[in-house]
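Why this split exists: single-chain examples teach little about how molecules sit against one another. For that reason, every record in the complexes split bundles all components of an assembly together and asks for one structure covering all of them. Below is a record exactly as it appears in the raw files.
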Amino acid sequence: MEFNKEFDASGLSCPLPIVRTKKALADMTSGQVLRVVSTDPGSVCDMAAFAEQTGNTLLEHGSENNKFVFFLKKA
Amino acid sequence: MATKKMALIATKGTLDMAYPPFILASTAAALGWDVQIFFTFYGLQLLRKDLDCIKISPLANPAMPMPVPMPVMVQMLPGMESMATMMMKNKMKSKGVASLQELRDICLESDVKFVACQMTVDLFEFETSEFIKDVEYGGAATFMKFAGESDVCLFI
């Protein structure tokens, strides 16, 4: 999937992947896609909850090289 | 959708109990919530400019995982608290857990409001000059005003 920006949260634990994802989205414009990579298994549920509560769309999530990958479309 | 609100009361000044209010507050702020933390009793220590005074002890924390079982008599020895704190901080760092300082900074950057309990500041004769400047001083009524409008309210 194409994306406009990437944020690597590898090695970070709760709540940093979410808090910094929010920060990474801050300077993006509506409709742009952010790719987030994380190693925290908790971020699978957290990213969905973040998207639901902030109105950003979680387009896709999966795993790649034992890491979790998310694509968020900015609201 | 109206902005959600969360009101927290932070009453503890140990390393383990310092995390929940800052984690919840920084996360809620990232979700767009309006957050206020009321610091009272030992929780006031979390407002110090220097957070090195925040420690953890295996004493009275019998469920704390230890690398080797440690009898209470040993836990009482001088230096054990500093050692346990150092070990915990190293473990946190190695697991990518943010430092207290970092989480508190994130809270402040994302406009979490800090309110210090004036009564306990006076009770313990704390010097407010030792606290960070981004603090308001108030009492129970100040907290109740925000807490009464909140969606989530927790005592930690």
